[in-house]
Amino acid sequence: MHQPPRWITAFVQWYASEHYRDEVIGDMLEAYDQRATHQGISKANWRYFLDALRYFRPYVIFGEENHSQNTITFSTSMKSIVSLSFRKFKKQPGYSLLNLVGLAMGLGCSYLLFLYVAQETSFDRFEGHENVYRLGTTYKIGGNIDHFSNAPRPVGPTLSRDFSHILSQTRVAGVNGLYTHQAYFEYDQRQVTSNQVFYVDSTFFDVFPYQLKAGSSPTPLHQPKSIVLSETLATRIFGNANAVGKTLELDGTTRLNVTGIFTQPDFHTHLPIEAVTSWDIGAREGENEQWAGWHVYTYLKFDQPQTKEAFKGTYEIMSSKYMKGAMERIEAEMDPILQPISSIHLNSSLQWEAYPNSQWQNVYIFILIGSFLLLTALINYINLATARSGLRAKEIGIKKVMGSTRKELLVSIMLESILTVLVAAAVGLVLIVSILSPFNELANVNFNLLDLFSITNLVVYLGITILIGLLAGSYPAIQLSGLSGAKILRGSFQTSNRGVLLRKALVVTQFLVSIALIAGTTVVMRQINFVESQDLGFDKNNLMVIELPAQENTSGIESFARGLSSHSGVASAALSRSVPGIELNLSFFSIPDADGNYYQQGVEFMEVDPHFMDVTSMKVTQGRNFITGSEKDRNASVLLNETAAQQYGWEGEALGKKIGWGTDSLGNRILFEVIGVVKDFHIGSFHSAIQPIAIFNTFRTPSHLLVRLQGSDIRSSIDHIATQWQEYDSQNPLQYTFLDQNYQKMYEAEQNIFTLLKVISLITLLLSGFGLLGLVAFSLQVRKREISIRRVLGSSPLQVNTLLGKEYLSMLSIAFIAGSSISFYFLQGWLDNFHYRISLQGWEFALALLLVLLLVATLLFLVTRKTINQNPGHVLRSE
Amino acid sequence: MYNKTLGALEEFVLLLILVMDKEVYSVTLAEEYHSQAGKSISLPAMHTVLRQLEKKGYVESAVGGASSVRGGRSKRIYSLTTLGYQIIKEVHQERNRLWKLAPNFTG
Prior knowledge:
heterodimer, A: alpha+beta, 13-stranded mixed beta sheet, 7-stranded mixed beta sheet, 31 helices, 24 strands, about 15% strand, B: alpha+beta, Arc Repressor Mutant, subunit A, 4 helices, about 55% helix, elongated
């Protein structure tokens, strides 16, 4: 007996439905045998193959439900379910599509949101992270309390050395100032900038488990002038060549040896790095021994997880031994802040964080929204599905009459439900792929297709989808399959009161959330507008901020600055060591009180040149500005802002007062005379109140050049400056930003929230609309006869409309009251974050109500139109 | 009420079923068709025709014997229904009636 090629048989076995499989393959085998005998194997194979192709027809694939035989059985095979689902979908394309889209949106969006949550909660969870902590410091000086995310330099190494339960430590600092971790590298004529460059202790990789690539030195940071790069940065600088062993130049001044490359870590971290250098790069004379001030980020690795109390004891031992002197000098109390490293990303917002962190509230909100969307989609699906149950009921009735067992019915309903949900899930995936890039920008993350479709994530997604399918299917399944078949066909389909109440409650919830979200969006928008229109106390428009590389002296850069002013596009230029909008340095000053005794205060300070006031358009309200060329002004004058003058009790009489900063070689205070008071200006964002600020003219070399541009052609002014810069300094490229852009960034978080809220409001509104649709469709079906009778008795369509509408009014009122209260509470809390804020007025909530009302009214009108206007005679007769 | 339109192939196959004395299923029918009509027909095509005929109610089927050639699978045996017999008879009679009215050509 001849055997045909296995794979062809397997192919047919796969596609053919249970029903036809045997007879078709049997027939094919017989024919094959005959052909093989009479025509030869190859001809037989070929014919066999052709048969397999030709049998590939819909009826074979999907099978048939009945066959003219003695018994009529309903196949519960997937194939028949699929074809049945297709047909049902085609029958009511409008509703089916709606349902599908709603479900897809819900599934897709919640998937995305949960991915976000999963990522955000996994920051810094590398192996052994339970033992790694960051050490911050709390300063209590003269009634002021400040929490810093970093610590004085000697603290880390001392703790690690003196205590055996502290296994290791590493200090980290931005390479150009604690807070500034931007630098540029030069190699082979190529210049590459990076925003993530730090100098660190040689123990860095003991604390942070980055993987060093093969070829890297096992102790890459032990040698001075060494640097370790990330893979990506190395490729940017050196191309595909092996970077280890090569030399590059940092910021045009320092030559460094590349001693190692690390690969992209498999964990997200609050401290992303692209390059770390050995400690000697950033260590400045004298700073390494300061027990107060000159902070660096300090990370400690213990032998086991620590409690705050236990560590306090340890810290106290150290501080009493070493830090007493410093604390007395600045009259401060210094206490430790111990943060578990994995908690930093979502919880920490101390001063001087290396990068802005997120908040756990965001995660919480996302979880809430994700769950809500999912729930909503699910509810809508069930609603809409049971609303169309007229059709469903008939189908089930017939099946039952034809002899289907209850079990078969249950299975078929479940399977159909799971199938629908799976299709929706697939559509959902397509949806989120299309909105991926805007979402990435919004949520400040970086998801790519790989993340979306990773096996683990997809499995979870599918699992939840199937679960939902089961859940969604269970309700109609249990309800309908239990009823007597004949009864259904006769038309008395039961509607449980409990079911209707539940569904109403769910729709009310949806509207509640819609109202809350719309009101929230309005409020956020108002606050953002308010903040943006505020008077900053200076003019941030067209203000160019140029970063200056290290200078030897000021004469060169000063003449450059003067030279710029001659151009028509340049109004004025100033040199400074401070830039508005960036957190200022803090130092400790001696302030005289009413009796002439000095007390210590932590004060934010700026160092500027005499042109600064002009360039920024800040106003000196009392006294005068610095005078160019004045030695006295350089060494002994200071400006205070209004808040400072107020705080020290010198309102109106600040001029002439002297404050002390540092000591001279003899130990005497160095005094600065207040020569002027400046109108308050906002340095930071509007989250915090204005602090006292002292402005000096003391810097030796400036770090920034501020240029006020004027005229209409900004572009050419910039070009001009760039060309001038080239002449002045051909080594370093011109690095600049614009102040208004920097300020924009401060409010990025709020902007993002705003956009997010808008989107979520829209989606929720849509889903609520779907929900309402389901409810209305259902009730219409039930009340068809009632409506027709009313029409017969003489009601006009409008009257019937109103009658139906009134029901939903009460639902809306509940939604409004609850929704407004909840959102009021949350919004007030959010606004409290801002020191300068709007106040909640009632109309935001009224607007939300109005919008929702509009939606409801339109929906109702459209949907009920058909039923109400139907010829009542037809309806009543067809029953 | 039955669908009166009957395709040429369908009519032919019905006749074959009427005439054949062997077991009637796709394989044997295809063979018979080949020997009677001179043309060959593929298995799936025959299978489709049979299915159509069954849907129209002209044939009925029952599951029949298995054989080792078929890998132990059973086959589906077809037979004419009364309706099927009636319809080809009717068609045949209608043809005859018309032919009788046709002019008598010699040859």
